[in-house]
Amino acid sequence: MTQSDIPPAPESADQRLAEGFARHVERWALAQGATEHVATAVRHAASALSMATSNGHACMALQDLPHLPHLKHGPDGLADVPAWRRALLTSGVVGTPDVPGSMPLILDGDDRLYLHRHFDYERRLAQRLMRARGAASQLAADTSNLQRRLDGLFGSNISKDRLQGDDIDWQKLAAALALRGRLTIISGGPGTGKTTTVVNLLACLIELDPSCRIALAAPTGKAAARMTEAIRQRASHLPEVIRSRLPAESFTVHRLLGVTTAAGGFVHHAGHLLAIDALVIDEASMLDLALATKLFEAVPESARIVLLGDKDQLSAVESGAVFSELSIDPSLSEACVQDLSALTTTPADRIRPPKPLTTSALTDTVVWFNRNFRFARDSGIGRLASLVNAGAAQQALDWLGSHSDHSVQWIADGAAAPTSPSLQRMAAGYADFIDAVNRDASDRGAISDAFARFRVLCAVREGPRGVTAINLHLERHLRAALRDFDAAESSPWYPGRPVLVLRNDYVLKLFNGDIGITLPDEAGELMVFFPEPAGGLRAVAPVRLPLHETAFAMTVHKSQGSEFDQVLVLLPAQRSRVLTRELLYTAVTRARSSVTVCSGPGVLAAAIAAATQRHSGLLARLRESASTTDTP
380-609 maps to which CATH number? Predict the structure, then answer.
């Protein structure tokens, strides 16, 4: 076989979409009178931009165009940015921020090239954020009253043995910040106290105004359900009169806004606002640019908005990295420092940053929670998470290789398919679960609890180290270990089969990310039992389930918003653009007590070194909006 006989690699769906869009824009440019040379340039730019948005970018830098591999044989005479800029702006299909018109592409003053809709989303979101930040809080209480309420709610929040040295209660300060303004962004990893802070904040709002209309939401059904449960648990210390007024349910953002039959349409929008006074969004790092824009526009400007998330976690699957951009700078003005000091009786010098930060458009809205109350920074999980976050690849490999902490294990397995040590660790992780199924299949609570303690997290879905292959392997292992079960091997249903829901079903109240366990009911029929938010389990017939899959292994993306006692992280054998420090950090921090990483050293080091960089102009749009918005 000669080289010419080898068929080209098949185009991906994203590539086919990009090429189709690019050809459409090229024809549009020609219809506007552009020369063949300019129209060809626009086609190349549109194709590159479409691929960039498929990879999560909100825009692309014009300076990248001359260096893209597939443009090496692009139009002549376009070797630099000025040449590309001239060609695009004379094409008749590329607008500017001042004159966007109905053109499909927009080129801003910093040479960022956008799809029109993404530029429109950025501008609208920035304008709405600045109006939220600029809205003065109208509290029916003076400083001393608020101080007393915060002291009562946070007085025993963190015991003195957990606050060390010069530590201050940032949870209390964050609540005070949210009482002071209309927009608050709280970033912190698992176990840093975000939920505790929100519960006490909501209690304070209810004390101030018992009629306060509060809504809770999250991007996914699983995250919304976990939010409901977490708030219910954290609110147990509150008086019944307060607990009874807390929201009984969290919604997905889509359900909160009300999905309509129109593509991308919602019942609630800028012309039909939500009837709420306060909104808390959990797992906000999963919000993409389009959804964040539509959500903020549907919230009344008088309402208080609190975003909770982790700036170091994976960003949304779709375009944008909204939360990480909004939480980039926790700067506080001197006026805000003094207000927080008065509200919390914390000395201003301890609140004030040690060195001045660059004042951002969102000054006085962002708080970082850096202290973890689940595991210390110098614990095994905390240490690994810190090294990954810092991009310290060699230091992380050296530390992992030293076996200095039993809570973190590294299996240096870089083979094409997982080797015996990795597979044995997976099997050992589910040993208690299998024992529980064999011991008493009617003890559903114990079985569900045993399964929830361990999870295999994969970076990819396909391939020998992906979710599909690992689920098949573990499924065979479980079937072989089951006693007293004679179902046909071809049947997909068997006692102990864990099921991950992939699509929301509001009738059944099952949501994307929910996990149930297949077990016999009292009549011996196999049912899938799902945990209830208030405790207990409920049965759903397998035939009624929405789209689902087996759940011994799940992707790191699917695990966002979940926590497990023990986690095994399986990375692919080859480097991939999906392998980033954000993905690895997200996987590691799903673990409460121990984590095992199965990866070759090269791939692991590459993942730690690869920081996600999503091109966006949201911060620039915020600065532009700040210059035209009256702020206090």
Answer: 3.40.50.300
